[in-house]
Design goal:
The chain has five helices and four strands, in the order H-H-E-E-E-E-H-H-H. By secondary structure, the protein is mainly α. The strands form two sheets. Strands 1-4 form a two-stranded parallel sheet. The chain has one domain. The protein is globular and about 40 Å long.
Length: 118
Amino acid sequence: MSSMQLVNRQNRFLSSSRHMAVALMMVAAAAAVAHADDGVPTEKVRIDKYNLNTDAGSRALYQALSSASQRVCAVGESRQLSVAAHAQACYRQALANAVAAAQNERVTQLYRAKNATG
């Protein structure tokens, strides 16, 4: 994939308000990379396979969301600084949206701890 294609892909993702609300959809379906009707990449993460009543289950879901966000945003696919910066911004937004969509306090606490500034 060319640098321009990566930037276009990430720009479409970042500018799509419909997909900002559900950057990564958690559903009880098989995890698969897909493209929405408008070509914005998405990845489904099965939430039902994690025991969110335990720290281990919550950590495992957080890791799955983080990994899916990296794949969706093509993190690490380019060495060009501007493309890499777009990928990181995309990743941060996708992960924040996915954590919010999970609606789980333990996962939210993990996200806050890992992304605390100060």
